């Protein structure tokens, strides 16, 4: 990757269409009065896929990065045989993020959150002195911890105490990575609230979540992997969602691929899934509401505690914002589905038996939705289907390895004093 050059692109506001330069860590258009995402517009309209030596950066034509970091892996797409035959599907493609060397994917944290972390961190200026803040329900924290540790980028993670078991690593982390948590009983939204208090200090800056074009375009590499492998844009896209950022990214990649001109002109139907009983996106979509519906805080925390796929427990997703999930679902004539823990567990078991790979609960939720549509006869058996397996291969990644867990420097109560929080985190770095 010695000849790697930073990608040329501009930004545009989805709500107004105004184009402007990325002057640094831009997360929104300062001139736009309405809540809106911004998108990257790449100079290269046709995607030139680089060699596998580039890892995730093989798709760098459409990634808003200043530099390529070492250690990344791109998602891998392959045509399913056993699972497809079992479901009676003729054109099922699996896009795999995780640890599965036989399919050429080696994400040591076993999650497609690495696609975000390598792109977001590749967007950071090497001279940046402030501390990056990432709130996470688990997998995102693990991915950012790995990437920041390996590349000496200062990072503060904020995770609910109930999700700390997700922070396992195959080797100790660099001291530049620190972790704080919100007390047991708190959820992902509480972690976001805690991170927002930290961000009142000028020594820290927000990763930005869905508003960060690097996060979305990193996740979009799953669709780029699928389209460039299959040779066309799929008809259907299946993924489980907490925030829906991956689905927004899929829609944006779809539009870029249409503009490229070599992969067809069709729009993928986005089929996103939630894990019952935590289903706020499903509820808003069923009500045809651009705004999220009221969700009692106690009930939300209780529902989040009951689902297997903890990473899907986002109470404040980028749903109604211009360019957000509501717009993505409308534009693609998509739908939101719901599966139970039991259905997702059966799907995980089936995938392991037929495809030979263990998968996380979240992709189990996505597969369970595909199974439901097949059984209901609401999907064409010959359609080109992309199943986004967003986390897999943990058994192989952990095999014969000593695991190391990141412990929080401090666990804060949900009512902790703001000055106490800020003073404490500033002392960590």
What can you see in these coordinates?
The chain is an alpha/beta fold and 429 residues long. It has two domains: 76-110 and 214-397, Rossmann fold; 131-202 and 400-429, Rossmann fold. It is built from 14 helices and 18 strands. The chain has helices at 82-87, 113-123, 139-151, 188-198, 213-219, 221-230, 245-260, 280-286, 297-306, 325-331, 341-355, 361-376, 394-398, 418-428, and strands at 9-13, 19-20, 38-42, 76-79, 92-96, 99-100, 105-106, 131-135, 155-160, 168-169, 177-182, 204-206, 236-240, 269-275, 335-339, 385-389, 404-405, 410-412. The strands form five sheets. The chain has a six-stranded mixed β-sheet with strand order 4-5-16-13-14-15, with helices on both faces. It has a five-stranded parallel β-sheet with strand order 12-8-9-11-18, with helices on both faces. Strand 1 (9-13) and strand 2 (19-20) form a beta hairpin.
Using the CA coordinates, give the radius of gyration.
20 Å
CATH domain class name of the largest domain: Alpha Beta
Give the CA-CA distance, first to last residue. 32 Å
Total helical elements: 14
Percent range for helical residues?
Answer: 25-40%
Chain-averaged pLDDT = 96
Low-confidence stretches: none
By CATH, the topology of the largest domain is: Rossmann fold
Which CATH architecture of the largest domain would you pick? 3-Layer(aba) Sandwich
Count of domain modules:
2
Structural class: alpha/beta
Characterize the largest beta sheet: strand count, sense, and whether it forms a barrel: 6 strands, mixed
Strand content: 15-25%
Q: Globular, elongated, flat, extended or rod-shaped: what is the shape?
A: globular
Strands side by side in the biggest sheet: 4-5-16-13-14-15
The overall strand count is 18
């Amino acid at each position: 990757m010695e000849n790697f050059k930073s990608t040329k692109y501009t930004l545009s506001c989805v709500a107004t269409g105004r184009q402007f330069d990325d002057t640094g860590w831009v997360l929104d258009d300062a001139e736009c009065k309405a809540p809106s995402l911004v998108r990257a517009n790449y100079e290269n309209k046709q995607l030139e896929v680089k060699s596998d030596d580039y890892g995730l950066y093989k798709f760098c034509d459409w990634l808003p990065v200043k530099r390529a970091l070492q250690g990344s892996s791109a998602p891998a797409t392959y045509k399913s045989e056993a699972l497809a035959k079992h479901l009676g599907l003729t054109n099922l493609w699996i896009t795999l993020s995780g640890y599965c060397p036989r399919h050429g994917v080696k994400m040591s944290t076993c999650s497609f959150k690495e696609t975000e972390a390598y792109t977001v961190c590749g967007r950071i200026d090497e001279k940046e002195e402030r501390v990056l803040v990432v709130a996470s329900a688990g997998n995102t924290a693990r991915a950012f911890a790995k990437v920041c540790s390996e590349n000496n980028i200062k990072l503060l993670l904020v995770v609910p105490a109930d999700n700390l078991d997700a922070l396992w690593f195959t080797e100790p982390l660099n001291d530049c990575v620190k972790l704080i948590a919100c007390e047991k009983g708190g959820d992902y939204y509480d972690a976001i609230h805690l991170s927002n208090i930290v961000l009142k200090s000028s020594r820290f800056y927000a990763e930005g979540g869905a508003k960060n074009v690097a996060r979305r375009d990193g996740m979009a590499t799953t669709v780029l992997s699928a389209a460039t492998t299959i040779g066309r844009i799929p008809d259907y896209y299946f993924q489980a969602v907490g925030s829906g950022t991956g689905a927004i990214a899929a829609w944006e990649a779809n539009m870029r691929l249409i503009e490229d001109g070599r992969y067809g002109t069709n729009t993928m139907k986005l089929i996103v899934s939630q894990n019952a009983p935590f289903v706020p996106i499903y509820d808003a979509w069923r009500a045809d509401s651009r705004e999220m519906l009221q969700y009692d805080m106690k009930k939300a925390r209780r529902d989040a505690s009951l689902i297997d796929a903890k990473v899907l427990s986002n109470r404040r997703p980028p749903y109604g914002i211009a360019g957000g999930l509501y717009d993505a679902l409308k534009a693609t004539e998509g739908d939101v589905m719901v599966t139970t823990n039991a259905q997702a567990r059966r799907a995980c078991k089936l995938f392991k038996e037929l495809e030979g790979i263990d998968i996380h609960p979240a992709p189990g939720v996505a597969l369970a939705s595909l199974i439901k549509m097949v059984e209901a006869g609401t999907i064409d058996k010959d359609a080109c289907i992309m199943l986004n397996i967003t986390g897999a291969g943990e058994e192989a990644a952990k095999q014969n390895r000593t695991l190391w867990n990141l412990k929080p420097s401090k666990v804060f109560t949900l009512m902790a004093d703001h000055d106490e929080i800020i003073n404490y985190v500033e002392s960590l770095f």
